[in-house]
Amino acid sequence: MTAASLKRIVEEALAEVGANVNFLLVPKGKARSTTWLGIEHGFGIRHYPSGRNVYIVQTRMAGRLRTVTIGPASVLTRHQAQMVARRVIAYAQVGRDPATDRKRIRSAPRFDDFLNEYWSRWSPQWKASTLATHDGYRRQYLDGAFKGLFIDELNEEHVTKWFADLNNRTSPGAANRTLEILKNMLNKAEIWGYRLENTNPCRSVRPNKRRQCERFLSAEELARFGKVLADLRGDENPTIRSGCAVITLLLLTGCRYREILSLQWRDVKGNRLLLRDSKTGPRTVWLGAAAREVIDSLPRDPKVPWLFWNHQYRRPISCIRHLWGTILERADLGKLRIHDLRHTFASHAAMSKETLPMIGRLLGHANHQSTARYAHLDDEHLLDAAQQVGDRIDLKLKPSTLS
To answer: Where are the beta strands (DSSP E) in 11-112?
Structure first.
């Protein structure tokens, strides 16, 4: 790649991000230092003794390391410089002239055609529940999203506008999930040769902030909740009694809602539940004495494989929303999701001084970051420990008194 080609790449990229900066050569023979920003490999700021700071990008071209100076940090924003650096790295990896590259990738399909290809090639690797969820997001938010655009034309501006519109149409969580699907799609477009490498525009779109404060039942709320459950367990309707058992088991195990509703007797092995298909794949749930007692109290029918079933229609219980609303109203608990029973289990485990790795294992978390949200709940025993250590040190500091 010639210096003229590099200059053309940088100038085109600067124009695209809305910056007007003359192309610069790297000064030589001066003491200098470089701060690598870590956003893109080889992207950083070079500092000169004069106080001048410029954005640079280093990448291997034609078998040797080349340094390209993008422009002064006093003129360009970090985001603008990052976009230019990404373009330089992408063309360097391809190793061809920009005009040749544009001709090569023009064979890329339109977005809708690539969406069909991605779904047919990649969806067989998803679980059935994941496929059902993703099909819903595709149908509502991805089909027809970028009409007329080729997959290699999709840029940050297109994705940013799409994501802003998406947030006006759905919840923050659903928007984030759809953005993740699109991001993975464009990663595959690079791997399959339809886009230049390191050009995924979703990387620069900030997802919605996740809800940090999870709702869980306090000790006083648990007492009211338990009283209502006890009353309902005496109901004449066996389906209501089964629903109460579902809710109790959710509280005692921290399992997800669908994991409990889909339980079959073959999944119960002594003091363990062998879940065949959880969110993170097959896993083992350990049962305490109270949880095992709930299971032992369930009525069994040799012709019904499920633990929790509708006794009128002899099929598994699919929903307990009506029962859940009744419990919340009678216990005066306000807004509480069934999933918050899982948070209640984890929160009380943290307050009982269980370690975060242990809580993660009990919940079946694949990522420790999912468990980290409960870290603040073990502050009480940390304060107790700090108090005890401080008392011992303070005792040593005081001079002994002679009787």
So the answer is: 33-36, 43-47, 53-61, 64-72
